[in-house]
Amino acid sequence: MNKGVYLALLSIGLAQGVKIPIHYFKKKEWRPELFFGTGGMPSSHSAGVSTLTTYIALQRGLPTFDFALSLVYGLIVMYDAQGVRRQTGELTLKVNSMNELIEKIHKEESVEFKQETPKKLKEMLGHQPDEVIGGALLGIAVGVIGHLCTKKNRKALNFRLRF
């Protein structure tokens, strides 16, 4: 794999890892399982695509096809993360609250009604705009740092090859 892919995966992992302490500071609740979940601050989707796009821009330049493709792909991913996926999460909240209401209604009836309770749907699917921006900023930082590290390694390699 190339360094851009490694950096993007690293950025996704960092974003997932940072969700745990951010959640702890907001809710005073330690939840390590957030590392494997979707949604929350920062967006790992945004972090990954922003890292890759930044790295490509710095390595190959802005007028390249690689950068254009990565930028458009990244914008679609970030739009989807805060648009469609967030709306799905909000719809899920409503469905879950309807299930709770139906359970309350059935408990108050005198007729016994047996039905398996459906699993509660996952409510945290998408991202708020600030979570997408947070992920994008993290991704840009990782992309810049990755480029600088690669640049230094290249200079050291050229120096070694000359002597």
Automatic annotation (TrEMBL):
Membrane-spanning parts: 132-150
Q: Which InterPro entries match?
A: DUF212
- Which keywords does the record carry? Membrane, Transmembrane, Transmembrane helix
- State the superkingdom: Bacteria
A Pfam family per the record = DUF212
Query: PANTHER family, per this entry?
Result: ACID PHOSPHATASE/VANADIUM-DEPENDENT HALOPEROXIDASE-RELATED PROTEIN, ACID PHOSPHATASE_VANADIUM-DEPENDENT HALOPEROXIDASE-RELATED PROTEIN
* Name assigned to this protein: Acid phosphatase/vanadium-dependent haloperoxidase
Which organism was this protein described from? Answer: Neobacillus bataviensis LMG 21833
